[in-house]
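User: Structure please.
Assistant: Input sequence and predicted structure:
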Amino acid sequence: MALEIKVLDYGDIELESSFLVLGRNCGIRARVYTYGFLILGGQYPVLVDTGFRDNAIMEILGMRGLQFHEQMIENQLARNGVKPGDVRYICHTHLHIDHAGKDDHFPMNTTVVVNRREMECSVSGLMHPQYPKPDIMHLVERLHTPGALRFEDLELSGPVELIPGVVLEAANAHTEGSMNVHVETAEGRATICGDVIYDIQNQIVDPYHQINANEPQVTGNHAGSKRGEKAAIKKLLNGSKFLLPVHDKPAKVENGQIVGRLDMAVPGPVSQTVHRRHWFPV
């Protein structure tokens, strides 16, 4: 079954640049998108990530949230003819502050799907305060409500098909419980990869401060090893036709290389062809 992914614009975040790409422009502010993803064409809509709770909550990380009326989650869904009550599953790439902030806008018969390891990490104190109390407390309410929360154990089970054409797989990067969401589209596999990738240009196309061939740069915000981060990015490049990070525009992949960028739907027209710099020995 061919599915389509609509990109939802939840607003922007201003933050320190080296948070996104390790060592880049330390002390200089950058502004990034915050996206969610609506999967359509199946039996019912599936939503991936719900953005940040409100602008003020981003201040606990020293960041600035920039979300306006048109970017509220109900309005973004409505642009695609969907109401919160229509969504059957909300899948979370992970539970950080800018990914799981509006689950409480959905009824309890919408099932939130998380990797169990991610829920464990959210209350472990690791990467605190990126897991804010109101978001996690809402998930605890769902934990005690029949059918409102679903756990996967992807590190042990391997990939799991949520609905036909949508497969969940452990990301093994960014946080200990992050997961990728693979979607079968008419043009090939598209992978919603959360924060495994923040910045496609500076991590993959022209990786910042990397000199080895095909060597991606890591983010400045990850719980695991740099080797694990690099391997996770390489796996994405070798397994998917499209990559959809939460804080950058989607990318088209051919033969393990980024060849184009897309806008607000996948599949969709390529809005920008990628030209990488070529390095030659001196």
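The CA atoms of residues 210 and 217 lie 7 Å apart.
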